[in-house]
Amino acid sequence: FDAVDVIRTKRDGGALSPAQIDWVIDAYTRGAVAEEQMSALAMAIFLNGMDRAEIARWTQAMIASGERMDFSGLSRPTADKHSTGGVGDKITLPLAPLVAVFDVAVPQLSGRGLGHTGGTLDKLEAVPGWRAALSNEEILAQLDDVGAVICAAGSGLAPADKKLYALRDTTATVEAIPLIASSIMSKKIAEGTDSLVLDVKVGSGAFMKDRDRAGELARTMVELGTDAGVRTVALLTDMSTPLGLTVGNALEVRESVEVLAGGGPSDVVDLTVALAREMLDAAGRPDADPAAALRDGRAMDVWRRMIAAQGGDPDAALPVARHTEDVLAEADGVLTTLDAYAVGVASWRLGAGRARKEDPVQAVAGIELHAKPGDEVRAGQPLLTLHTDTPERFARAREALAGAVVVTAPGELDGFAARERT
Ligand code: URA
Questions:
Q1: Is ligand 1 within 6 A of the CB of residue 195?
Q2: Nearest-CA neighbor of 153 among 181, 182, 112?
Q3: How far is CA 236 from CA 147, 182, 242, 265, 352, in A?
Q4: Which stretches does DSSP call E strand in 342-416?
Q5: Angle at CA of residue 242, ends 239 and 248, nearest 5°
Q6: CA distance 354 to 356
Q7: 177 alpha carbon to ligand 1 midpoint, in Å?
Q8: Ranges of residues in the chain whose predicted pLDDT is under 50
Q9: 109 pairs with which residues across the strands?
Q10: How does strand 366-369 pair with strand 246-248?
Q11: Which residue segments constitute the domains of the chain, with CATH numbers given?
């Protein structure tokens, strides 16, 4: 094969043959197809799409580029969850121990934040002593013993995706449904879970801003999982406003622990329980009552063991920012908009996220929300508290929030005439 022929096929709107796909993924992983060639192919796929058979084959070829994990030796079924990413989305933290209460093993191989969305590993690293990197043997031993593990995906899973994802990030080819679906599902299928629940986010804080595209992404991923023998279901959930009342690493751990203690904001509790029900159903535990396991402390027990098994101290105080500033309501009224994307960017600028993969993050940085859309607020009341160790970051965080926090006066609620007011 010749890379130029493969690119030309897709450039001219044709379908790639299985042999072309197998060859191009393998050759790219080995370095025999150049970055600029894969970059042209990714753009041709972005512009012309791929049919179902092409997407399935592309996914299989990415799986074949690396190792597959095998959980078949465990005595319990495995269930996993994947969120397409959002702002304040800390659900994995309470969810993994909650599902493990019911004798289901939860191998949650996770990532770090990039851009405005947070990463599960960055959040858990706010817990003193906690370690993200585990060997495959350690993962299996912890699943056997505790039932839940949240750790870094090893470099052996779908190495073709690692290279391709980094390339897409720098060539404006991330937001293509065939490429997103195959990227996510190649890693999940290679991980070897029996069942998978996808939380596909829709709204300003998500990759997919509108419902039709999110639905198409969900359908494509469910088909890929099902065809590969993984019981796969998807929920479409809202990401137009942040989840819960905290955004940022240590702040989100604190809120997750509140949920595990039977409290916490209702949107976080409801989504955790809804996803747990789907995972437990898919794993053959339709009668389990996850809400009860949050209230009676069983999920908290598994959380404590899960954190301790990875070197963390579940009783240690979480770090707290040296500097905070409040954003105040300027008028009486109803909070009608609190934009997820803007809050995500502001939190990132406060130090919770990174601009380049190798940058460090501040565990303490982030944003606390004191009101959610629909709440009545009074002039002068704090709506947000910004947290950081580096106060020179406050100004740029406030810039990101311009226009993103809208309070509408009671008389103007019909038609939201006062959308521009902050
Ligand atoms: N997450 C992934 O793993 N891959 C994508 O392409 C997008 C989100």
A1: no
A2: 112
A3: 27, 18, 15, 20, 26
A4: 366-369, 376-377, 382-388, 405-408
A5: 130
A6: 6
A7: 10
A8: 417-422
A9: 151
A10: antiparallel
A11: 3-49 (1.20.970.10), 79-155+184-309 (3.40.1030.10), 323-416 (3.90.1170.30)
CA of 176 relative to ligand 1 center, distance in Å:
10
The atom number, within ligand 1, closest to the CA of 111 reads: 3
| pLDDT of amino acid 114 | 67
Show which residues are catalytic.
82, 161, 168, 183, 187
Distance of CA 343 to the CA centre of its chain: 16
- Give the residue carrying structure tokens 């702002």: 87
183 in ligand 1 pocket by Cβ < 6 Å?
yes
Backbone dihedral angles phi then psi of residue 281, each to the nearest 5 degrees: -60, -50
83 φ, ψ (degrees, to nearest 5):
-105, 140
Q: How far is the CA of 184 from the centre of ligand 1 (A)?
A: 5
- Ligand 1 atom with the smallest distance to the CA of 187 is 3
Structure confidence at residue 116 (pLDDT): 79
Tens of pLDDT, residue by residue over 276-300, are 999 999 999 999 999 999 999 999 9
Mutate to test the pocket of ligand 1, among 84, 196, 200 (most ligand atoms within 8 A of CB): 84
Mention every residue, 6+ apart, whose C-beta is less than 8 A from residue 411. Answer: none
- CB proximity list for 90: less than 8 A, separation 6 or greater: 118, 120, 123, 243, 244, 246, 252, 253, 255, 256, 268
